[in-house]
Design a protein that fits this description.
Blueprint: E1 15-20, E2 23-28, H1 39-54, E3 60-65, H2 76-84, H3 98-105, E4 110-114, E5 117-119, H4 121-128, E6 131-135, E7 139-141, H5 162-171, E8 175-176, H6 177-183, E9 188-190, H7 195-207, H8 211-227, H9 230-234, H10 243-250, H11 253-265, H12 267-274, H13 283-292
Parallel strand pairs: 2-3, 3-4, 4-6, 5-7, 6-9
Antiparallel strand pairs: 1-2, 7-8
Helix pairs in contact: 1-3, 2-11, 11-12
């Protein structure tokens, strides 16, 4: 995740919308901060997906990121300021989740093309897309538990098994492409140079199919998840049985102490404080580390 203190797109255009034949490409455009998603980016993503949904010529959408990453997740500078100010409700209009639900409800399939990193809110953004294609050297993960955040949008339990969901959300590790594929987090893994070629190939195949049948099949699949409680699970902050635990997590002093380091000393100091006792290493990496000691 990245801080909002870095430079941004000079013209304030944080999302680029382009149309190619019968599909559209929506690009998150804050490369200087690894496409961290702030409120302005959220609003522009909503606008871009609305344009794609309303264009009868567009039959599929590709979501990607400019520069070195798909996205480093939610803008931690913006979200930390909210928590430190005592605002414990991130679900106002423009908050995390509105873009995810827009993709879920979109009448056209959305393909995430992931390179570099897709972390936290961006991990969930890739997960809610109908297809996810990942570069073989990319990494994804729900690392926000390391600095005291819960999942912005609870997508993980709906795309992997129970044990895998707990591994992802309780350990906060970065996950490489091979493991992401084995977990079922992504559909395909390709070399980065072929990432957009593969994503556009899927988009073109979708565009060649009967439009209304594609729309119906996406809606049918989504309906099966909604009948099993998808929307209720995502709205966990509104559950009175969960209210106390949610409030306690937002007012956790350990979390606030770490975020104060971010505000006062910057990103590097925050990261060192956050990960001081956290390694996130695999068994093989732990063995190698011990051998070097």
């Amino acid at each position: 995740m990245s801080s909002a203190n870095d430079s941004q797109a000079s013209d304030g255009k944080f999302v680029i919308y382009t149309k190619h034949e019968n599909y559209a490409i929506i690009t998150i455009n804050r490369p200087d901060v690894l496409n961290a998603i702030n409120s302005a980016t959220t609003e522009q993503l909503l606008s871009a997906f609305t344009d794609a949904d309303e264009d009868d010529d567009v039959r599929a959408v590709i979501l990607n990121g400019a520069g070195r990453a798909f996205s480093a997740g939610g803008d931690i500078g913006e979200s930390s300021a909210r928590i430190l100010s005592g605002d414990s409700n991130p679900n106002e209009t423009g908050g995390p989740g509105v873009v995810h639900m827009k993709i879920w409800e979109l009448s056209k399939p959305v393909i995430a093309a992931v390179h570099g990193y897709a972390i936290g809110q961006a991990f969930e953004l890739a997960a809610v897309c109908d297809f996810t294609v990942m570069a073989d050297d990319a990494k994804v993960g729900e690392i926000q538990i390391r600095h005291g955040y819960g999942p912005p949008v609870l997508m993980t339990p709906f795309v992997v098994t129970l044990k895998r969901a707990k591994e992802i959300l309780l350990l906060g590790d970065n996950i490489d492409a091979a493991e992401a594929l084995s977990m079922g987090l992504v559909n395909r893994v390709v070399p980065e140079k072929d990432l957009m070629v593969e994503a556009e190939s899927i988009a073109k195949r979708i565009a060649a199919l009967p439009k209304k049948t594609v729309q119906m099949n996406k809606a049918l699949i989504n309906r099966s998840y909604e009948l099993s409680g998808f929307r209720s699970a995502l709205n966990y902050r509104d559950d009175p049985n969960f209210a106390d635990l949610w409030e306690e997590s937002q007012n956790d002093e350990e979390t606030k102490d770490r975020l104060k380091v971010l505000q006062e000393k910057g990103w590097d100091a925050f990261r060192n404080e956050r990960d001081a006792n956290y390694h996130g290493r695999s068994v093989e990496e732990e063995k190698k580390a011990r051998e070097k000691q």
